[in-house]
Amino acid sequence: MTRRSAVGGWLIGLALLLVALAMARDALDRWVDATVLPLTLAETSVEMRDREGRLLRAYTVEDGLWRLAPTLATVDRGYLGMLIRYEDKRFHRHRGVDPLALLRAAGQAVWQGRTVSGGSTLTMQVARSLEDGSTGRWAGKLRQMRVALALERRLSKDEILGLYLTHAPFGGNLEGIRAASLAWFGKEPARLSAAQSALLVALPQAPETRRPDRNQDHARAARKRVLERMARQAVLPRDAAEVASRAELPSRMEPFPQLAAHLGDRLRAGAPDLGRHDLTLDAALQAALEQLVAESVHRAGSKLSAALVVADHRSGEILASVGSAAYGATGGRQGFVDMTRALRSPGSTLKPLVYGLAFDQGRAHPETLIRDAPVQFGRYTPRNFDGRFRGDLRIREALQLSLNIPVVKLTQEIGPARVMAALDRAGVVAKLPGGRPGLAVALGGLGVSLHDLVQLYAALAQGGQGPRLHATRGETGKTPTRVMSDVAAWQVGDILAGMVPPPGAPPRALAYKTGTSYGHRDAWAIGYDGRHVIGVWIGRADGTPVPGAFGGDLAAPVLFQAFGRLKHGFDPLPPPPPATLIAGTADLPLPLQRFRPRDAQFTDAAESPKLVFPPDGAVLAATGGAVTVKLRGGVGPYLVMANGKPVLTGQRRDEFEVSGLGPGYSTLTLIDRNGRSDRVTVRLD
Q1: How far apart, in whole angstroms, are the C-alpha atoms of residue 546 and residue 553?
Q2: Are 237 and 212 in contact (CB under 8 A)?
Q3: Could you report the per-residue pLDDT of 501-551, keeping only the tens digit for each?
Q4: 91 plus 216 within the same structural domain
Q5: What does the alpha-carbon distance between residue 415 and residue 239 come to, in Å, rounded to a whole number?
Q6: Residues in domain Penicillin-binding protein transpeptidase (predicted)?
Q7: Which helix H or strand E contains 13, and what residues bound it?
Q8: Rounded to whole angstroms, how far apart are CA atoms 471 and 50?
C-alpha cells in the first residue's frame, strides 16, 4: 500500500467517523426533542399573606404535602451558593448532564467497590423529583438524563433551580426550601445561618434518615460533611464552619402559621383558583389578638367562644380578624364556627344609631330632657334592663345608662323602617325574625354580625360616612353612603366617649358601647378612637345562654386591651364639626329642651295629674301597709309606682288604695296616659 493510499484511507475513515458522530448527535437531538416531559407546573400551597407579605396561613396540596412556591430573590444567597457548590458545581456550565461528574462517580464506585456519589446534576435531581423516579437503577438513571437534557433545552437555569427549590424533599410531608425552612426553623428562607443552610443542603439526599427530629446523629454528620467541603473549597472560613458544625439542631418540626384561619378559609372558598391572597391584615397584630382572645375566653369559661375584628376606619382595611377563641376546637367552644360572620342579637349596640338619627332629624340634642317612665305602644311595653325608672334625664345620660324606654320612644318617633334603612346604608345586613321591623329593633330584636357592627361604628367614627370594610389589598368597595350628618355622628361619639371605662383603662380614650342580648346569649363591646375601630363578641357559638354575662363585664375589658396592643396605642378622637351646637339644656331652642313626640297631646298645667292625698311629707299610721290615694286631673289610664316599681296599672278611678308598703319612707309616683306625672313621699309609722 502506497503512502498516498494510506492517507486517503485515513481521511475516509475520519470522514466516516465524523458522519457517524453527526448522525449520533442528530439522533441524540431527536431523542431528546422527542422526550415527553413531566408536568413542571405542580400544585403549590395556597397562601394568605399580610400587608407586608408575611405568611399568615398556607394550605397543604395533594396527599397532605407542604409545597410552597419560592422565588430565587427570596431565598438566602448563601444557601444557594452552598447548594450549587456541594451538589453541582458546574451547574451553570453543563447542559443537564455533567460527564465529568459521571466519570468521577464511576471511578469511585470501581475503586471502593460501592457507590459513593451518584453523579446526578441538580437538573437530573429535578427530573427525578418531577417523575418521582428511581435513583439507582440504570434505566431510571438513563430516563433522568434524558429528561434533564430536555429540561435544559426548554427552561433557563433559574427556572430549573426554582423547580429544585420547589420539589426537593426535606423529610416527612415537606417539599421545597420554603416548607423546609418554615418547618425546621420557623422562618422564611430569606436569611439562613451557615448551620441552617448546610442542613438544608444535606437533607434532600436522604430526607428520612437525616431528619433531625428522628435521628440527630445522622443529621449532624451529614451537615458536618457539607460544612467541611465548604471549608475546603473556601466557601466558608474554617472557623465559621467549625462553629456551624456545633450549632444546635432542631428537635421537632415547627407548626405552620395558621393566623386568621376563618378569614383564610372564606377567601379561599370564594376564589379557589387563586394561589396567593394578599390581605390588609397585620400578622403581628393578628397573632397578639388571637392570643388575647384565647386568654380572655380561657378565664371566662370552658364553653365560651369569642370573636374580634379590628379595622382602620379611614381606609376600611381590616387589620385583624379573629373568628373564634380556638380554630378547629371541638366540644363546647365549637371553634370551627366563624363568629365574626354569625348573625346574633346585637343587644344595645344599635342604640347609638337611633340617637344619631334623632339628632340628625332635629328631634333631639344630647342635652334634651327625656322622660324615663313606663310607656306602652299598643301591646308592646318596653322595660329597662334593671326594671327601674329614672324620670326626667338628659338624652346623654339615657344613652350612657343604656336605658331602653327613651330609645324606644325615639325609635317610635323616627320609625323602625328608617332605622333599618340606615343600617342598609351603613352596609349592615340585618335579619329580622318577622316580616316588618318593629320597635324592638332598637333593643337588638334582629340578627347582625360582628363584622357588620364594626362596619356601622366605622361610619360613626368617620363622621357618618365610613368606607366599606375589606380584607383584600387593592380591593375597591362601593362608594360610602352617608348614614347621618357629621354633627350627629360627632354628638354620638362625644356621648360614648363619656362612658365609664373598665377599671384601669384611660377615660375618654374611646367612644364605645357595650351590649347584652336577651337571655345573656351575647356580650358585645364596640368602640373607636381617631383611627381604629374594634368590635368584640363573647358568648357560646350554639346560642345557649351564658348566665351572668354582660357586655360591660366580659367584652369591654377585652376591647380596651385590644386597643392597647395596637402599635401606636390610642389615637385622639376628633374635635366637633364647626356647625355643632354645644349648649346646656336651658340654652337650647325651646323645641329641643324636652323631647315630645309629634303627636303628643298638650294640655294646660291645671289638667296635669296631681296627687292631692296624701300630701308630700305626710306621716301616716301603718294600717297593714295600705294607703288611700286621691288624685285630680290628668288623663287615664294611670300607672302607679311605689319606690320605683309599678304596683297598679290601668287605673282609671281618682280614688284608690295602694297596699304592700312597709314601715318608713315610701315614694308614690303617678303617671297618666300622656306621660305627665306627680309624686309624693310619705312615712308610715
Answers
A1: 13
A2: no
A3: 999 999 999 999 999 998 899 999 999 999 999 999 999 999 898 888 888
A4: yes
A5: 81
A6: 307-531
A7: helix 3-33
A8: 10
Q: Which range marks the domain in which residue 639 is found?
A: 605-684
Residue with cell 374611646: 510
Closest listed residue to residue 198, CA positions, set 188, 186, 184? 184
pLDDT score recorded for residue 83:
96
Pairing of strands 511-516, 391-394: unpaired
Residue 470's Cβ-side half-sphere holds a number of Cα atoms within 13 Å equal to 18
Q: Are strands 47-49 and 276-278 parallel, antiparallel or unpaired?
A: parallel
Lookup: cell for 378: 299598643
| Residues in the chain, overall count | 685
Helix axes 404-414, 416-426, angle to 10 degrees: 90
Number of domains in the chain: 4
Domain boundary among 198, 223, 245: 245
d(Cα 449, Cα 225) in Å, to the nearest integer?
Answer: 58
Query: Are 231 and 101 members of one domain?
Result: yes
**What are the tens digits of pLDDT across the range 607-637?**
678 888 888 888 887 777 788 888 888 888 8
User: For residue 9, what are the contacts with CB-CB under 8 A and spacing of at least 6?
Assistant: none
Compute the distance between CA of residue 593 and CA of residue 317 in angstroms, rounded to an integer. 40
In the structure grid, which three cell numbers stand for residue 609, read together?
Answer: 295629674
Provide the annotated active-site residues: 87, 348
From residue 548, alpha-carbon distances to 75, 197, 307, 488, 513 in Å are 54, 56, 19, 34, 18
Query: Nearest-CA neighbor of 262 among 338, 204, 185?
Result: 338
The vertex-668 CA angle with 665 and 671, nearest 5°, equals 165
Angle in degrees, CA 532, 534, 538, rounded to 5: 170
Has residue 335 been placed in a domain?
no
Reference 447, options 347, 555, 525; nearest CA is 347
Q: H-helix or E-strand containing 610?
A: strand 610-613
Among 245, 268, 297, give the residue marking a domain's end: 245
Measured distance CA(548)–CA(46) in Å, rounded: 43
